[in-house]
């Protein structure tokens, strides 16, 4: 099949991002009801340190932790110069040994460029990875998995499975895992127009449903970006994302939910529109905590937080937790 002429996918952006999920952790200490852990006191953060083996332009890794208190880190960077090969790299952290050096574990089946979109770990100890493969002329979204205990070995990763074609840039995507074990992939594409597309797998990633759009920008100069997904206590999926213009300014922040057992995402709602004269609203992230949803994003130049107590149906006004 002939691909459409490059349009929405002509800019392969790697935009530096704020670590907004970390900001949400701090926000919860200020706005969430006190729980047993808070009543017992909060330990100090360790001094910051550079993760070994990452290049200066490597994006922050996606982190997941297992029951043995091991932190698994996934990002992507150049592993070979001639010819250039951009691969998914893995490292892990333990309290006793600290960080391991990153090793390349997944290569793209298309072109020589792979970029991490999302990572999940299930109750059986399998790590599920969603990644972008290709370039601005031809790109797809792929899935692979490996046992957590062997995640540092490239042969342990399953052959990549095609999730969706016509992946777009700026590159963005996320992977959700609900209470029934269904995997939910969300990614930027342009098969039916610039927007976000979804696909799911009910058999541990062996097969995937045909991608369908649940949000379209209806524009050649507006792009979805920075999508993040979290799972509610009932297994519902909750997503937030940006729409940005070619200058990288945040036009709006959106939210959408996927009820348990459903395949079609609900109608997206605008959480906030950006100021046309500024950098706008940027870097949204979402988590669940004690049954509530919290969304944090940058209303340039400050971080703001909104809360929903009814599964995303209604939202509080935005508050500024850090007034400085």
Give the low-pLDDT segments. Answer: 1-40
DSSP helical segment count: 2
Helix content: under 10%
Helix- and strand-based class?
A: mainly beta
Instruction: Please tell me the overall pLDDT.
Output: 89
Describe the biggest sheet?
Answer: 5 strands, antiparallel
Strand residue content: 35-45%
DSSP strand tally: 20
The number of distinct structural domains comes to 2
Compact summary:
This protein has 324 residues and is mainly beta.
Describe it.
By secondary structure, the protein is mainly β. The protein folds into two domains: 1-36 and 166-324, no CATH class; 61-164, no CATH class. It has two helices and 20 strands. The strands form five sheets. Strands 1, 2, 3, 4 and 5 form a five-stranded antiparallel beta sheet that branches. It has a four-stranded antiparallel beta sheet with strand order 6-7-8-9, with no helix packed on it. Strand 6 (114-121) and strand 7 (126-135) form a beta hairpin. The longest helix is centred in the first third of the chain and has 12 residues, at 20-31.
């Amino acid at each position: 099949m002939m691909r459409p002429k490059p349009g929405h996918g002509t800019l392969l952006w790697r935009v530096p991002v704020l670590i907004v999920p970390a900001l949400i952790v701090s926000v919860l200490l200020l706005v969430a009801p006190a729980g047993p852990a808070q009543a017992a006191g909060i330990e100090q953060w360790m001094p910051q340190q550079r993760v070994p083996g990452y290049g200066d332009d490597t994006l922050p890794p996606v982190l997941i932790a297992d029951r043995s208190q091991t932190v698994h880190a996934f990002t992507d960077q150049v592993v070979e110069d001639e010819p250039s090969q951009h691969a998914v790299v893995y490292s892990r952290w333990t309290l006793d040994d600290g960080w391991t050096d990153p090793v390349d574990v997944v290569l793209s089946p298309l072109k020589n460029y792979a970029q991490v979109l999302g990572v999940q770990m299930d109750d059986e100890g399998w790590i599920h990875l969603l990644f972008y493969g290709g370039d601005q002329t031809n790109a797809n979204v792929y899935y692979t998995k490996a046992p957590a205990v062997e995640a540092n070995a490239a042969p342990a990763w399953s052959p990549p499975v095609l999730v969706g074609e016509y992946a777009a840039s700026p590159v963005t995507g996320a992977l959700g895992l609900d209470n029934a074990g269904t995997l939910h992939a969300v990614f930027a594409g342009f098969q039916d127009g610039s927007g976000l597309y979804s696909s799911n797998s009910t058999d541990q990633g062996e097969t995937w449903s045909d991608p369908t759009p649940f949000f379209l920008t209806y524009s050649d100069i507006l792009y979805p970006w920075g999508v993040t997904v979290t799972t509610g206590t009932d297994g519902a999926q909750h997503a937030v994302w940006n729409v940005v213009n070619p200058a990288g300014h945040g036009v709006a922040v959106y939210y959408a939910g996927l009820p348990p057992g459903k395949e079609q995402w609900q109608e997206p709602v605008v959480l906030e529109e950006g100021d046309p004269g500024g950098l706008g609203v940027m870097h949204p992230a979402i988590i669940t905590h004690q049954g509530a949803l919290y969304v944090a994003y940058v209303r340039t130049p400050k971080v703001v937080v909104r809360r929903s107590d009814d599964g995303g149906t209604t939202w509080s006004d935005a508050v500024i937790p850090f007034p400085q």
